[in-house]
Amino acid sequence: MLKMARKNTQCIENINILITFIILNRKIKPKLNFMQSIEKTKFEMIEKEKISELQFPLSDVLSDEISRKERWAELQRATTLGNLDKIKFKIYFSDHQNKKYYTETTIWGLTNERIILKHGIMIPINRVFYIKY
């Protein structure tokens, strides 16, 4: 019985990884003009330990649903790679004053509303513009 439960758990994990892979390889692209303009924006580097000092509003920095879905898929991918291979990603986000930051770190966990970094430091997903490998 225990062997069957382990196999089922492994199958579910494999299915989740496969779904994430499929989502990432679809041809869903955010509005090009938005991404071009945001990538030209200057982001200030911030150490992850300083993130807990920032304040974040409830509003989302992304205005369209396609961009939000792509952000979610990228975050799931980054979380998986962070847990499996300890790969670091650059997370680009803004605070309550719309000051733009980025940090380079491994993503340890993900909830529906927050990215969880080392030492329990969290960034609200709705304040993330994009992430890069």
Q: How many domains in all? A: 1
Overall geometry comes to: globular
Average of per-residue pLDDT values: 82
**In angstroms, what separates the terminal alpha carbons?**
40 Å
Structural category: alpha+beta
Strand order of the largest sheet: 1-3-2-7
Uncertain segments are 27-32
**How much helical structure, as a percent, in the residues?**
40-55%
Number of helices, where a helix is a run of at least 4 consecutive DSSP H or I residues: 3
Q: What value does the Rg take, in angstroms?
A: 16 Å
Strand content: 15-25%
Describe the protein's architecture and organization:
It is built from 3 helices and 7 strands, in the order ααβαββββββ. Strand 5 (114-116) and strand 6 (122-124) form a beta hairpin. The chain is globular and about 45 Å long. The longest helix is centred in the N-terminal third of the chain and has 24 residues, at 2-25. It has one domain (2-132). It is α+β, with helices and mostly antiparallel strands. Helix 1 (2-25) packs across helix 3. It starts with a helix and ends with a strand. Strands 1-3-2-7 form a 4-stranded mixed sheet, covered by helices on one side. Strands 4-5-6 form a 3-stranded antiparallel sheet, covered by helices on one side.
What layout of secondary structure does this protein have?
Blueprint: H1 2-25, H2 32-40, E1 44-45, H3 65-85, E2 89-94, E3 100-105, E4 109-110, E5 114-116, E6 122-124, E7 128-132
Helix pairs in contact: 1-3
